[in-house]
Hints:
The structure holds two protein chains of two kinds.
Chain A: H1 3-36, H2 52-61, H3 73-89, H4 108-116, H5 119-129, H6 133-164, H7 169-174, H8 181-184, H9 186-199, H10 211-214, H11 224-249, H12 260-281, H13 287-315, H14 324-342
Helix pairs in contact in A: 1-11, 1-12, 3-5, 3-11, 5-6, 6-9, 6-13, 9-11, 9-13, 11-12, 13-14
Chain B: H1 2-23, H2 27-47, H3 51-74, H4 89-109, H5 124-132, H6 138-159
Amino acid sequence: MNPWLNWVIFTIVILVFFLGSVIMFIYMERRVLGKMQARIGPNRVGPFGLLQAIADAVKVLMKEMVTPANADKVVYWLAPIVVFAPVLMVFAVVPFANGALLADLNIGILYVVAVGSISSIGVFMAGWSSSNKYATISAMRMVAAVVSYEIPLVLVIASVVVVSGSMSLNDIVLAQQNYPMLLLQPLAFLLMFIAGCAEINRSPFDLMEADSEIIAGFHTEYTGMKFAMFYLAEYGEAVAMSTIIATLFLGGWQGPFLPPWLWLVLKVFFVFFLMVWTRTTLPRVRIDQLMSLAWKFLFPLALINLVITGAEVLAYPLGIPWYFIFVNIAIGAVLVLLFSRLYKVGGGRVAVG
Amino acid sequence: MALTIGFWILAVVAVIGALLVVVLKDVFRAALSLVLALVAVAGIYVTLSADFLAGVQILVYVGAISILLIIGIMLTREVQQGNTTNKFRIPAFLTALVFFGVLCFVFLSTPWQVSGVDPLVPTAGPLAVKLFGEDGYILTVEIAGVLLLAAIIGAIAMAREK
């Protein structure tokens, strides 16, 4: 196919998928949250309240833009773009069907991790340039969280790459022909889910947007469309993380009967449902809990998981036999139990440093 | 042709970013220009078909090192004072100029060998074989790892409260 035609088609596909998913995610989050908290949620705009997100977007568009007098103007204006652009760029390597993706990079997943890490600079720019103490505190917290959680995230992704033998997302999906990676790497899925939730600042790890302590965090000083960009980027990151988890662990577009893209969408929404579920269930963590969870729980487990995976792949270079599904589930369960015994947070004290 | 245009755009952006790091008064903006320069360098790696290197460049330099740099700036007192200079201003400029001249001389006078072979398409696999395969650099990689570990432990030991 003509590369320019390919580029145009997949740019449109990605934009539609992205915006559609973001709108549906916002709707789903509010409705599921409502149901789980025994209330109704938005139900007035359109059928079942489906158009609520669009109504909110229109409202935000018509708001006045306010720039703080002491803000570092250039950085302040650039920040929403630096946060938003990388989120959209992640989807360039996500396959919607076999070979149906914008760019089949052979470093696929490395590209995702690398591009995803740029967003944190944007958050930092927003926090710093607003010249607002809450925004700055939020930016500091964000960086502490992202830098810590990126390490287990990359280690877990590395173990998936070791099993599938490729970094290209399309090849990773093809490697899950017989059974999804979730069965072969149950511990990795758990770690990836936790680290992913922390990486995209979702509750219970949403310390940087803890309304009760630091207002809205880094986007406190943003109004109108610039605020909408942050909002969009936040849910866009949720879409991106759900898509990556669905692709790496749930077999991406693979599935019987239904068309491939529909399978991918269903899996993405399933992963996001899990995220909403954890959000309603768990209270927000403290900053010391956040740090020790990353360094004392996720990091060693991810490292052990990588070593075990490496040993399995070395022992069976032609493909890990199916009965290792049970072995790995057992190993994962034992390790999680063991480490949750070892894992203590300063005896309930706030232990910093 | 497109590659050449891409290279020139990236090269100009990288040089402008690097210059801004030195020229800008605001330290925070200087750090952001450094990020810009590093991203442009990653782009240049892409034009050289070193995609793995480009990915790692973004991940390590843009995603981690620059963040640590910015944290360092935020923890510095008197950021408002900006990029201060001291009495080494002129000597430092002269040294940099001499170094720049030497670099230019070396780059221009070296007969660079241009390979006629097309670049390998999946770069990650051959790179791993080169590093960890036979006659590879496994010992060097391991020594680098141990060195980094020692540095981290040393940093913790120094930063720890007595």
